[in-house]
Amino acid sequence: MTLKLGVIGAGAIGQEHIRRCNNVLQGAKVVAVSDINVDGARAALQRLNIEAEVYADGYQVIQSPEVDAILVTSWDPTHEEFTLAAIAAGKPVFCEKPLAMSAEGCRRVVDAEVKHGKRLVQVGFMRPYDAGYRALKKVITEGGIGEPLMLHCAHRNPSVPESYTTDMAITNTLIHELDVLRWLTNDDYKSVQVVFPRVTSKSHARLKDPQIVLFETQKGVRIDVEIFVNCAYGYDIQCEVVGETGIAKLPEPASVQLRRDAKLSTTILTDWKDRFIEAYDVELQAFINDVKAGELTGPSAWDGFAASVAADACLKAQQSGAIEPVEMPPRPAFYDKH
Ligand SMILES: NC(=O)c1ccc[n+]([C@@H]2O[C@H](COP(=O)([O-])OP(=O)(O)OC[C@H]3O[C@@H](n4cnc5c(N)ncnc54)[C@H](O)[C@@H]3O)[C@@H](O)[C@H]2O)c1
Ligand SMILES: O[C@H]1[C@H](O)[C@@H](O)[C@H](O)[C@@H](O)[C@H]1O
């Protein structure tokens, strides 16, 4: 049986996911798409040479009897409402990060899912599907560097549009680390502080860039993450784990080494689409397979909530300049068995 997908939001990642579901992955097909920019959605489908029903309203996609499962790839502030509507319709939903704009919003999704009685939500945290992060986790869990003591991380984008503001460095960008570092270290955040270095001249009035986010975890590990979204030189994700007996580092994406013109060089990627292309394939194939098998196993609404609890504390720390606690309520038993 082919799983029939409805996609809400046909922008950059929406188009990427539509392309991979129809042309790369197995067992699914996009049959309905919505975007507030209907003409843009139609033009994108034409470019991709894919036929699907186009709607102006995301709720029509969710309610369509032709659609078995939903992908939410619209702007961040719309995620919660569409995910809640998919749960209300009893349809599995893959929601891009962040699950909602606050922990309170994520909690509403968690509560709705628990009330439904079966997992329906997967959050689009793709890094746990990335081969590099998986290899890094394997080294750590097999004791290859002893117990982790410190993590040094960086999340750099070459540039961002004027609509990107200081808070989005947390809710839109750091949210990836907030999820993947919990997964990587099997630990939770205890407190956080945000420090603002000198602002780059490449930024704009409403964005303080770069930022350094400093965490202490429940196990006492110290983590620093540099977020630098106008770094100009490329799309660069770094993660170095310092343990008791060694250091493990996230591998660089494969790139040919060039010796030329008296220089030794490798290419740095410039776009998230390329940096995580395989991870997106694996995460969405897992979602498709899991929906068909009747049991979701990927990043859950609870993971989305946990990341947002930490994000809320980071937002508070951006304002206060102080060390802010990260207070995580206990996980409902529902997420142990699901
Ligand atoms: N996992 C990742 O690495 C990753 C990468 C990129 C984007 N994202 C997430 O995916 C989402 C989309 O990002 P993007 O880069 O594609 O942005 P984008 O601006 O290119 O696309 C968003 C699209 O959503 C549409 N839209 C907005 N509100 C809508 C609504 N109510 N109903 C239907 N369509 C609506 C817009 O018209 C636009 O076409 C964001 O939430 C972003 O955080 C995740
Ligand atoms: O939506 C994108 C995406 O999530 C990328 O992975 C991240 O590096 C960007 O900062 C963000 O704007």
From TrEMBL:
Keyword annotations: NAD, Oxidoreductase
Domain Gfo/Idh/MocA-like oxidoreductase N-terminal span(s) in chain numbering: 4-125
Keyword NAD: yes
Residues annotated as domain Gfo/Idh/MocA-like oxidoreductase C-terminal: 137-327
Reactions this protein catalyses: myo-inositol + NAD(+) = scyllo-inosose + NADH + H(+)
Lineage: superkingdom: Bacteria
Gene Ontology terms: biological process: inositol catabolic process
Coiled-coil regions listed: none
Pfam families attached to this UniProt entry: GFO_IDH_MocA, GFO_IDH_MocA_C
EC identifiers of the protein: 1.1.1.18
GO molecular function, one term: inositol 2-dehydrogenase (NAD+) activity
Subunit structure: Homotetramer.
Role played: Involved in the oxidation of myo-inositol (MI) to 2-keto-myo-inositol (2KMI or 2-inosose).
PANTHER family with a match to the protein in the record: INOSITOL 2-DEHYDROGENASE (PTHR43593:SF1), PTHR43593
Similarity field: Belongs to the Gfo/Idh/MocA family.
Protein name from the UniProt record: Inositol 2-dehydrogenase
Naturally occurring in which organism (per UniProt): Pantoea latae
Lineage: Bacteria, Pseudomonadati, Pseudomonadota, Gammaproteobacteria, Enterobacterales
